[in-house]
């Protein structure tokens, strides 16, 4: 790792990881469930490699991107992909302004251009929700060239040294499509699993400090059962979302556990049979 330590950004990797992780927990940030995952992602960022985070909904991909932003003290520009995403959403648009009594055409930089120029982090969420024909415009941004010719202005933009790209993907979800191989090969990929065990317990205690131990244990037992049913293919991955678990813990401070899980977890699923299965599992833990 000595070869990496040549920039101010890389120097941060020399700091105590325990101190950094504790800081992130205190800020409600991401905590890695896999040894070395957090460190390895940071190394990828230092090497100026675009990062692709693959994992189920609620596994903490967005929180991870925010934690990278906090770690390097770099602002983050977000792009939320959908079938409506177009080049203007990425690069910017022209608008008419009035200056000294004259109407002028001005170009407003989009998130990609802003992040490239200012050396910030570009976060592309649900990248496989975008139409495949939209994203090739980013190919030169994501490979060794780290540059872009803006088709709206003809401006040639070379990325700032600290510019970084983090993208997130939910594989196999409705409305998604496989990433183009030319696009996927520009990223280094990391699988992001759900938190579990003591790490999950620590995060719950930090984010919902008023929750008592008995309540937390009950909800974690239910969460473990939900994960098993997800692995067995009987529930959608969203049922084991850590985000949903946190919602249920927060609600359970003020209402019975059954209702908290109904609103925080079960009702988020479309399938009525899956909703019923969740509530049946709850009944095995809540008398």
TrEMBL record:
InterPro entries: AAA+_ATPase, ATPase_dyneun-rel_AAA, CbbQ/NirQ/NorQ/GpvN, ClpA/B, P-loop_NTPase. Pfam families: AAA_5. Residues 47-198 form the AAA+ ATPase domain. Gene3D superfamilies: P-loop containing nucleotide triphosphate hydrolases. It comes from the Bacteria. CDD domains: AAA (cd00009). Belongs to the CbbQ/NirQ/NorQ/GpvN family. This is MoxR family ATPase. It comes from Sporosarcina quadrami.
């Amino acid at each position: 790792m000595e070869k990496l330590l040549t920039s101010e950004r890389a120097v941060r990797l020399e700091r105590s990881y325990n101190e950094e992780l504790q800081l992130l927990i205190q800020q409600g940030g991401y905590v890695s469930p896999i040894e070395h995952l957090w460190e390895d992602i940071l190394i990828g960022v230092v090497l100026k490699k675009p990062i692709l985070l693959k994992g189920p909904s609620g596994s903490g991909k967005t929180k991870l991107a925010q934690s990278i932003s906090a770690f390097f003290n770099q602002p983050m520009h977000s792009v939320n992909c959908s079938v409506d995403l177009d080049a203007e959403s990425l690069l910017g648009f022209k608008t008419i302004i009035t200056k000294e009594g004259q109407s002028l055409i001005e170009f407003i930089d989009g998130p990609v251009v802003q992040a490239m120029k200012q050396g910030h982090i570009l976060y592309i969420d649900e990248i496989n929700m975008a139409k495949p024909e939209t994203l090739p415009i980013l190919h030169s941004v994501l490979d060794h060239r780290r540059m872009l010719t803006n088709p709206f202005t003809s401006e040639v933009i070379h990325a700032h040294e600290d510019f970084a790209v983090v993208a997130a993907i939910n594989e196999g979800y409705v409305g998604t499509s496989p990433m183009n191989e030319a696009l996927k090969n520009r990223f280094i990929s990391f699988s992001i699993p759900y938190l579990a065990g003591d790490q999950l317990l620590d995060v719950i205690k930090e984010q919902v400090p008023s929750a008592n131990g008995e309540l937390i244990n009950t909800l974690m037992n239910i969460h473990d059962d939900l994960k098993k049913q997800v692995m067995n293919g009987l529930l959608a991955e969203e049922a084991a979302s850590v985000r949903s678990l946190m919602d249920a813990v927060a609600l359970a401070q003020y209402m019975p556990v059954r209702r908290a899980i109904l609103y925080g977890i079960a009702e988020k699923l479309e399938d009525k049979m899956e909703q019923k299965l969740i509530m049946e599992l709850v009944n095995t833990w809540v008398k």
